[in-house]
Write a structure and sequence with these properties.
- This protein has 414 residues and is an alpha/beta fold.
- Helix content is 39%, strand content 16%.
- The protein is built from 14 helices and 13 strands.
- It starts with a strand and ends in a 17-residue tail after the last helix.
Amino acid sequence: MRILLVSPVVGDAYGQERVLNESIRLLQSRSHEVLVLTDQVVGSAPTANHLVAIPGLTLMHTLPAKAHAKILKQLIHEIEALNVDIVHLVEQFDPALMTYFAENFPLVMTAHTVAPTCPASHRMVQGGGYCTRVSGWSCALTHYSQQCLKDFPGIPHRLKAIGQHLNRTAILKKHAHMIANSDYIRRALVLDGWDPKRISVVTNPIASVQRITDLKNPIPNHFVVASRLVPMKGVEVLIKALDRIKSLPWTVSICGDGELSHSLKSLVQQRGLQSQINFMGRLNYEKVQTLIAHSTALIQPNLGVESFGMAVAEALALGVPVVCSDLPALNELVSHQVQGLLTQAGNPDSLAQAIRRLIEEPGLRDQLANEAAKFTAEAFQQKHLEATLEVYQKLVHYPLGDVKRTEFRKVAST
């Protein structure tokens, strides 16, 4: 099978790019040809059979009509030469481009986040909750109470964002089979009116990593946080929790950077925890994995939900237990007192108690680590590959909608 993956960015950028790289490797291991269309390559290019980089791909919708027609024509000529069997989007793109894909190929899109269900791409509302409404023009009214479209200044910009969202989702709802990377994302899609029969849950693959050689000998009472330093990640709650148990013997390494970096460091100094909490900044993937591998546990104290929970899955694949908030989709990966400990989101006392247990109960860490070790990278990989191929094979044999497999649109030759 010849598979065209379409992604805004490929290479070594963030977690989504790591997922894409691993997906390509797994598909190629079954002798499938993987071709990639992208806007830009960051770092090392993926090992695709063929890669086409078109600068401006993700900004097509902002171009004047003449420039838009030119880049669309270029894309169609490039794609025509590839002779692909199926197109797999990992993000939403220009409506004209998605329409072209839908009219000529079986079409798949992976929802890595709730973005396909929300003009603001996040569904977050004031007070830390999440919107449960079906997206539409009513989002303009919802904004006045929830400020959910605050990134779009002024009524015209907000209405334009909603219109573009509805245009893109109309194409996908009609033509695409959706892949959700967790049951939480599947539920969000169904809540927003997507056909449940055209949604498959395919969890992310995890890259093979060197597991801990001795699960019983991590660095004693050393915990790791690996996340962006932004409000929804809850690192401030963690610092307050640690302040409650500062008399106990523990250390914490915080890997990551973000808008709260300065204020969190100030909070650590105010609480007198600077000798126990170390801000590592943004490290490369291998260094973060090494720190996690030798820790007592990974801590993920989220205030908001995760679409999958990549850091949690990678910790489990290393055989390391996890302390995390009892929120989707983290609680799809971690069961309380099985692979880790679940805590009440935003509650420093609940989080402090979980950390205290790992310090004071001698056998608990080993018990959790033994269960975490069952979540091997190979198991994630196999599950991802089989589920992905099942979707592809179903669509190639029974494509959705009116797919013209025998000829490309006439625009390709005009």
